[in-house]
Amino acid sequence: MQRQAAVFLILLMMLPSVALASSALCFNCGELHSGPLSACDKCGFQPDIENSTLWTTFSDRFMTPQMLTHFGKVMQLIAAATPDFEERLWVFFQHLIENYPEMGIIDPSSLQIPDKYRESVPRLIKELKLPTLDLRSIPRR
Questions:
Q1: Tell me: the pLDDT tens digits for 67-76?
Q2: Which residues, in sequence order, are CB contacts of 65 under 8 Å at separation 6+?
């Protein structure tokens, strides 16, 4: 128990932005849950520490409640269209690149969609007609 507490304290010191976030987007089901590295209350998805920057970016540390709710709805639509978690991420990333380049979350030149999703990602983007949000009208954090 003491070892777990020590590891947790070290993580908090290393990842101050994670410690300050109280809600975050679940990249599996689209619901908001407590903390970017906490398991989702709805689906149980456990974010990994290796992608903590991504998980934290989609938390109330960096996004408004309106933005998180919007991106949650987007993720829910994607999740309803494909059971494949990795495919959902690629569709979400492509949606961000196409509709929110000003966010600078993903560098389009570094995004290489795996061969197995090269056809399905553009198809899903086209079929789903995912909603967009005018970020200029939302105060930034």
A1: 999 999 999 9
A2: none
